[in-house]
Amino acid sequence: MQHKVIDTKDVVIRFAGDSGDGMQLTGSLFADMSAIYGNGLSTFPDYPAEIRAPKGTVSGVSGFQVHIGTDKVTTPGDFCDLLVAMNPAALKANAKWCKRNAMILVDDSAFDEANMKKAGFTTDNPFLELGVEDRTLIVAPITELTQESLKDSGMDQKSIVKCKNMFTLGMACYIYSRPLEHIYQYLERKFSKKHPEVIAPNKKVLNDGFNYAANIQAIPNTYAVEPSGNVKKGIYRNITGNQAAAWGLLAASEKSGLPLFCGSYPITPATAILEELAIHKSLGAKTLQAEDEIAGICTAIGAAFAGNLAVTTTSGPGLSLKSEALGLAVMTELPLVVVDVQRAGPSTGIPTKTEQTDLNQALYGRNGECPMPVIASHSPAHCFDAAFQAAKIALEHMTPVMLLSEGFLGNGSEPWCIPSMSDYPEIKPPYAKTPEDGSRFHPFERNPETMVRSWAVPGQKGLEHRVGGLEKNHNGVLSTDPANHALMVEERAKKVALIANSIPELEVMGPQSGKLLVVGWGGTYGHLYTACQEMKEEGTEVSYAHFDYINPLPKNTEEVFSKFEKILVCELNSGQFANYLRGEFPQFNFIKFGKVQGQPFLVSELMDAFKKEL
Do 375 and 403 contact (CB within 8 A), yes or no? Predict the structure, then answer.
């Protein structure tokens, strides 16, 4: 059989195995290598919800999907071109994601009777049982080959078996014409100081996997995904959404000249933001792992009062616990960024799966009339800009700001062009000035154009004042006067509404008027954008508007909506944004298209929804 190298526009690879099989590392290395190579990429780590599910069971399967392309890639892909399944459970859980012409690479060493039974197979032919026998099957004894490769390495048997993911990675690199140098460099960086003895064995098994794939007849063709070079010039790196959010907050700290304080309690999938900020003490970041969610936000509010850029991070259940303190932050009108990396709920829900089901909680989840700006990030790289803007709004408008991310964004990654900080605006908080005439400072007097109060950092003579949860008047004096309460409620709401003057207007991609406008928010951006592009390639242009700013909405939202007959709102919940828009603009025809499965949209199901409405 003559071997062919086929040039292709993009490929999707899904690595799957037990939690201990190293599939997250394998996928991450493949993604990082592709980013350095110059490919566009998008990743989707798919963790099991259980802390340690029984080994070999479907519930314990951990997956990592990588989509690489010649140009920019905006989704991890609906279905995969190559499925790597390290055991029968991984095959059973992921076979449904294979394309009709996909390759399936399995570790034959793991397909024994016991593992087949654990995975729930009832026959001795899993491929036939799953209906994938017509795919290109690569059945390789990966565990045994790894043991043979490292038999003279001096490593113990358990450590040798753990290297099978590197053998698999070598095979994948051969199939998709990936260079191995980046992985060699990673191994040297990671292990050179503490465990230099494992560098050579890992390099060897990686290379052996590459060579094994090159010498078996089961792989008839290999594929090349060459970068087109049609990208913005600059220095790129692969970045996750949580890492980007942390760096965006650090950038805001630099541009405001304020130290950053993050008080948080660890919670999936937001913990990585706290961990990333803790690394950067040299940049003035202070982090506190609090004993609970309430303590986390309360320490952040205290830091805001003391003059810091204050941050707290959480996910849905933690946001519920923070609700009373959020009301305190609104009442005291102190700058605070609350990052909610959403996950499937309610309650504990499915902690490792993604959803957009916290929108109602972000908009309304506090007692009293308690308005708060809400913005959303739309891709892993955009988490940097979204975090920066959240901090800028909080500091310049003296308000807590909710930044909504999602597990899909926080754990996912894409190439990010490292920006120059000179391209980002200065952040200018409205600091209070001591009254020159010796009069008393009035902490809740406002700028009439923005309704923003001034920020009096403690320790300044003449600016002494008190804040707290009780209602006050403009002078900062406790007040139960009905008219004053109505006035302060109105002013706090007006302050948030006026933020619309400092955010971008809503843009429409595609025709500016017509029968259907597709609307999305948050992490649905990549799938909706790709679905619209594929519709265009089929000959049907679809108008698309994406919301990064949710409260307040862009000023031209009503004008945009007025030009379309129907508005299809696509979101990973049961219609929360659609209901919000209907409440703001009841004159328009909103149609809901939701998904609540703990998984992102598929481009194919979005296209079906568009065609139904057209």
Answer: yes
